[in-house]
Amino acid sequence: MLDIRGSRKFPFFLIVFLGPAAICYTLFMIYPLAESLILSFFSVQPDNSYVFSGFANFVKLFTDSDTAPRFWGALKNNVLFFIIHMLVQNPIGLLLASLLVTKGKARGFYRTVLFMPTVLSVVIIGFIWQLILNPLWGVAESMMRAVGLGKLFQPWLGLPQYALPAVALISVWQFIGIPMILFYTALIGIPDELIEAAVVDGCTEMQAFWQIKFPLILPTIGIVSILTFVGNFNAFDLIYTMKGAFAGPAYSTDIMGTLFYRTFFGQQLQLGNPTMGATVATMMFLIILTGVLIYMFLFQRRVKTYQL
Amino acid sequence: MKRLLLAAMIALVALSAFAQQKVTLTIESWRNDDIQIWQDQIIPAFEKKYPNIHVVFAPTPPAEYNGVLNSKLEGGTAGDLITARPFDASLALYNKGYLADLTNLPGMNNFSNVAKSAWITDDGKHVFAVPMASVIHGFFYNKDIFKKLNLKVPQTKAEFMQVLEAIKKDGRYIPLAMGTADMWEAATMGFQNIGPNNWKGEEGRQALLAGKQKYTDEPYIKTWKELASWAPYLPKGYQAVKYPDAQQLFTLGKAAIYPTGSWEIWLFEKDAAFELGIFPPPIEKKGDTVYISDHTDIALAMNAKTKYPEEAKKFLEWMTTAEFASLYSNALPGFFTLSNHKITLKDQLANEFLSWRATCKSTIRNSYQILSRGDQYGAPNLENELWQVSAAVINGTMTPEEAGKRVQAGLDKWYKPKK
Q1: Which has the higher per-residue pLDDT, A10 or A163?
Q2: A53 Cβ under 8 Å from any chain B Cβ
C-alpha cells in the first residue's frame, strides 16, 4: 500500500504517529519498571550506599526466618483473595448480568445501583463497611439480631480467621459491577434470533443459557478472569484503608501490595528499604506476568470465538 | 550637590546595614496543626525580644515530612531550623552532616539527660537538637461514673482490677475503652504505659540496652500478663475496635477508664460532657515508686548549612528559657516542656499530668532508642514487633511467654550490646 511509486521509502509518518505514545510509555512505564527490576539486585548498606548483591534479596525474601513467612503469607493470602473473587464475584456478576438482560422495568435502575460501588472511592467503601461491621455501633449486629442470627455476629475484621474473607467480600461487593457490565454487554450482543430459533426447536431457558449463551460469552469470562487476577495481585488500597499497612490482625489480611508498601516505604520506626521493596515489586511483576502468559497461551488461543 | 550625595550615601549605607540586620529564619516542621500557635503566640514573643530576627513557621504535612525534609536537605534548600523527630530519624540526619552540633549551646543544661537522650549520638557526646516537648502516659477516667458507682481511684494493681470488676458487674458501662485493631494502642497505651512500673523505668530500659535484661525476663512477661488480664474488661468485639472508636466510646460517657496519654487532653476536654480525671499507671503495693512514660517526642535542630547560624542559635537559646517553656506548654496542653524550669499551666489536667514528674520517675518508651534499628540489619523492627505481639496477647492468640520469645529473638538477631 505504501509503495505507490514503487520505491521502498521508510514510512516516517509512522514514527510521528507512534512516537508520542512510545515515548510516554517508555518514559513512564518501561523505564521505571526496568529501574525497579535492576534495583532488586542491589542491597542498601547501613551507610546508605547501594551495593550489587545478585540474588541475595530474593534468597532472603524466600528463605529468611523473618521475611519468608511474610512473603509466603502474603502470597497465600493473595491467592485466597483471588479465589474468593473468582468464586463469588464473577459467578454473581454473571447471574446479575443474566437477570439484567431479561425484560423488566427496573432494569436501568438496578444496572446503575449495582454499578455504583465501583465508581465510589475505596476510602469511602472502607469507611462505610467498617462502620457497618463495627462491633460497637455497627448496624450489622442489630440487623442480624432482628432476623434471629444475633449470636452469629463476630467482630470479623478483628479476627485472624475471618478478616481476609471479610475484606475480600467487601472488595467483591465493590467491584461486582465490572464483571456484571462486561457479561451484560456480551449477553446483549447475542442475537435474539439464535435463542428464538432454539426455543422453537424445544430448548428450555436453562438449556439456552448453558448451551448457547455460555459458550458465546466464554471469551468474556476469560477477560474477566484475567482482569480479576491482575486487579487482585495489584490490590492494596482497600486493605490499606481498612487494616493499615500492617494488614492485621497478625498479618492475616497481608497481601502482596501491603507487603510491598511496608517494605518500600517503612512503617512507624521501621525505615523503608528501597531494594527489598523493589524485590517484592519484582515478584509481583513476575506473578502477574506468569498469570497473563498462562491465560494467553492456554486459554485465549484455545477458546473458540464465534463471529455473530 | 556634594552634600546631597553624601546624605544619599549615608542613607544607603544605613539602609544596607539595616537590611543586613533584619534576618529571616525559617522553621521546618510537621506540626501543621500548630501553625496558629506559632504565628500568634510563640514567634511574636520571640520577635519582641529580638526585633532584628524574623521567624517563619513553614510546616509540611506529617506523613510527608521525613521525605520532603530529606530531599530539601540534600538539595540545600531546607530552612534554618529543623523540627526533629526523636531518635534514629534525626540521628541519621546528624550523621550525614545536615544538623549542627548543639552540645555547647548555652541553656542546654536546662534539660535532663533523659530529655536529651532522643537527640544525642550513641556515645552520648553530641546533642544536636533542643528538646521541645514530651507526652506523658496515664489513664483518663470518667469522674461521674466513678461517683455514681462509688469507686475510688485505683493506686495499686489489685485496686485497678477491682475497679474494673466493679464496673463490669454494674453492667452499665464498659470498664476499659481500648481496641486492638490498630495495634499501636496495645503497645503504646498498654505495654509502654503500665510496663515501666514493672521494669523500673530507666533502670530497666538501660539494662535492655546493655543486654543485661531481655524481653523474656519477668518484668516484661508480667506486663504482657497484665495486658492479657484486661481483655474481659474491654468493649465487646475489641479485636475490631479502632483508636477513634475507643476515643468516642470514652467521650460519649459509655466507658469508665481510658488508657492513653496527655496528648488527648485537648480533644477530650472539647468533646467530653463529664468531668475528666486522670491517674498514673498502678503500682504493685502502696508506697512503691511510680514510674511513668514521659516520652520525648519533638525537638528543634539547626540546619548545619544555615546562612545565619548566630541568629538561629539565638532562637534555639531562647527555646531553652522558662518563657518559651511556659508559652509552648500552655498553648498545647498535653505537650510538656522537657526543660527543668518550673512552669505553671492553666489547663488543670495538663497540670496534674505534669505534677507526676515531681512524684514519679520518668522514662521513655523502651523500644525507641537504638533498639529499633533491626530492619537496617535485615532483622524485624522492635517497635513493630511490640505492636504485633501486644495486640496478639490481648486478643488471646499468643501467650506472654511466646511474645517475649519472639521479640527477643528478633532483637538477638542483630543487637550486640557493648559488654
Answers
A1: A163
A2: no
